[in-house]
Amino acid sequence: MQREFICGDCMNFLPDFPDNYFDVAVVDPPYGIKEHGGKNRSKYVKQKNGSSIYVPDGGYKNYGWDNKPPDREYFKQLFRVSKNQIIWGCNYFDYQMAGGLIIWDKCNDGSDQSDAEVAYCSLTRRVDIFRYMWRGMFQGKSIIEGTIQQGNKKLNEKRIHPTQKPVNLYRWICQKYLQKGMRILDTHVGSASSLIAYEEYGLEYAGYEINEDYYNDARKRLEEFRSQITLFDLGMEEHK
Question: Using DSSP, how many helices (H) and how many strands (E) does the chain show?
Answer without folding.
Answer: 4, 12
